[in-house]
Amino acid sequence: MDLLAIASGVAHGSFALAQEEPSGLQINLFWVIVSALNFVFFAVILYWLFGAPLTRMLNERRQRVEQGLADAEQARSDRESAESERLATLQEARREANDILTRAQKVAQDSRDADIAATKAELERLRERATAEIEAEKQRAIGELRGEVADLALAAASRVVGETISTDRERRLVEEFLAETGSASSSGGSAGSRGAGDATS
Which of 19, 83, 174, 201 could hold 150 in an S-S bridge, CB 3.0 to 4.6 Å? Predict the structure, then answer.
């Protein structure tokens, strides 16, 4: 406030001097210095009141913009990295799917081969069992037929001789004769069938 009082006192003195001097264009150095000091004073006050906060605000905004640009660049880099990871994961998933499909096809083929082998073994077992049953039935039928033929032969011999032949020894002799005749004929028949098979082949 002393500066203002001094300035006002100087202004009154200068005004009094101006009234005594003749009118015209004159430059007063004192007033130029006072005006310059006033301008500097108000400029400092304005900078202190508005300039510093505005500069701080601009700096903060610049930092925020730079941080935003850095974050955007980081996000772009992360997005590119995530895209490359997604493609790598997709390729890995496709490779694993192909491996699983290949293994499944191999397991299915192995299972099919095992089923075919088991079916063939079962068919072979059933064929052998059927052959054995047929052979057993054949032997049983041949045994029954021999018994009937033996009875018929004994009955015919009884008529020829004129007396009853029914002893166990005679029956056994007839059955042994029929068995020897049957084995000889069966061996001859099998040999003939083998020869026919060879001729056919």
Answer: 174
Structure token digits, residue 71:
């974050």
pTM of whole model > 0.90? no
Query: Of the candidates 135, 152, 149, which has an alpha carbon nearest to the alpha carbon of residue 186?
Result: 135
Under 8 Å between Cβ of 31 and 51: no
Helix axes 168-200, 52-161, angle to 10 degrees: 130
Q: What angle is formed at CA 117 by the lines to CA 97 and CA 124, rounded to 5 degrees? A: 165
How far, in Å, CA of 181 to CA of 142, rounded?
Answer: 12
86-100 residues labelled b (16+ CB within 10 A) or e (exposed): eeeeeeeeeeeeeee
Q: Which two tokens stand for residue 94?
A: 């496709």
